[in-house]
Design brief:
single chain, 15 helices, globular, mainly alpha, 80% helix
Length: 396
């Protein structure tokens, strides 16, 4: 056991020792915090600050989510053509204007404004993954993407909590701090200017290959697996909240969520250090099967324990899919590919929320977990068939 732990530490130490990787993780983590806080900040501002209720808050949150999903590939294409810094200037200005106006707008005006802000959301997640795919040697990419997945896990645990504190402590003016965080994040990413193309190639130096030449087969499987994994995670989270609320144990969700995230971090650590980890399709299937016992419900301590196997495969499944996208994307279209990966994340969450909500209200929380697990398993089977066929064709 000690040897295995020492070997994994050495693996990650080697990755962090690569030129520019440690600053990339630190700056990337900081830049992701305002992005992860956006949803809860807008929800609390509209529902509580403006006293418009959660239905209106949902419209605003849905608008910015839709904007991010639609805009991520476009922003990625701009990075491919013009480089990172000009795009960050554009996105930073857009966020400064939007968040500066948030306290001045009513809920109705916030919907189109949020959609526009989402279209020009800073590519904090995509840039890190694009840089990893472009600059990390093939032998180190698995632990590099595993570290990225673990960093994302922590960002989603910390960002919403900080956003909640800001809005509650500074009602009305809290969004201005979020806007300031966005501006600082874009400045930091621009200062770091991580490489987004292999070999130091300049943006627009070569024409980007047509999308139809690479957006197929294994790439579609990786994007579909990403969306399915997020669908599973979102449905599980909503179901756990509903189960705890029904038992008047909602306060225990913070502990359950912490254990869930910790299990994901451990799973991601093991995946990144493994010599021969399972393929994406297997990890996705294990994520579905590991989450299925959550449907059994029970007291808070039971749910907390059931979330351990559910969490163990979160980071591995997401890291494997992200690594595949980065590996398969052409260098001249990697921005578009990572943008599509970000869109897949948004699509998974967007589909999961209403699906799980309807099943929780009309059937039971267990039905939401079961439906999400069934969809995720179906995607895993399709992924296994497609990647298996592709591997067999190469062998022949």
């Amino acid at each position: 056991m000690a040897g295995a732990v020492g070997g994994s530490v050495a693996t990650y130490r080697a990755v962090l020792g690569l030129p520019g990787l440690a600053p990339l993780y630190v700056v990337g983590f900081a830049a992701r915090l305002p992005v992860t806080a956006t949803g809860v900040v807008l929800t609390l501002h509209v529902a509580i600050g403006l006293d418009e209720g959660f239905a209106a808050a949902g419209l605003v949150g849905g608008a910015i989510t839709a904007g991010i999903a639609l805009g991520a590939p476009v922003v990625g294409r701009l990075v491919d053509r013009h480089g990172l810094r000009p795009v960050l200037v554009l996105c930073g200005l857009a966020q400064a204007v939007f968040w500066g106006c948030v306290p001045l707008l009513d809920a109705t005006a916030l919907v189109p404004a949020a959609l526009a802000a989402g279209l020009l959301a800073p590519p904090a997640f995509a840039v890190v993954r694009q840089s990893l795919a472009a600059s990390v040697p093939a032998g180190h990419q698995r632990p590099a993407f595993a570290l990225d997945a673990m960093s994302t896990e922590v960002a989603y645990a910390v960002g919403p909590a900080l956003g909640t504190l800001v809005v509650l402590a500074l009602p009305g003016t809290g969004p201005w701090l979020v806007g300031a965080a966005f501006v600082l994040a874009t400045v930091a990413l621009g200062w770091l200017d991580p490489p987004v193309r292999a070999g130091g190639a300049r943006p627009g130096e070569r024409p980007a290959p047509p999308v139809r030449t690479w957006l197929r087969g294994a790439m579609l499987v990786a994007l579909g697996s990403t969306a399915a994994a997020i669908l599973m995670l979102t449905a599980t989270e909503l179901s756990v909240v509903a189960m705890l609320t029904a038992r008047d144990e909602t306060a225990w969700f913070a502990l359950a969520n912490t254990v869930w995230c910790a299990a994901s971090l451990v799973g991601g650590w093991i995946y990144g250090a493994a010599r021969r980890p399972p393929p994406t399709a297997v990890l996705l299937g294990l994520l579905a099967l590991g989450s299925l016992p959550v449907a059994l419900g029970g007291p808070w301590w039971t749910l907390t324990l059931l979330l351990v196997p559910a969490g163990a495969f979160c980071a591995p499944a997401l890291a494997a899919a992200a690594e595949t996208v980065g590996r398969l994307a052409p260098d001249d279209a990697r921005g578009v590919a990572t943008g599509l990966h970000g869109s897949a994340l948004m699509v998974g969450a967007t589909v999961a929320s209403p699906l799980a909500g309807v099943l929780i209200d009309r059937v039971a929380p267990a039905a939401a977990v079961g439906a999400a697990a069934g969809i995720t398993l179906l995607v895993a089977v399709v992924a296994a068939l497609v990647t298996g066929t592709r591997t067999g064709s190469r062998a022949r």
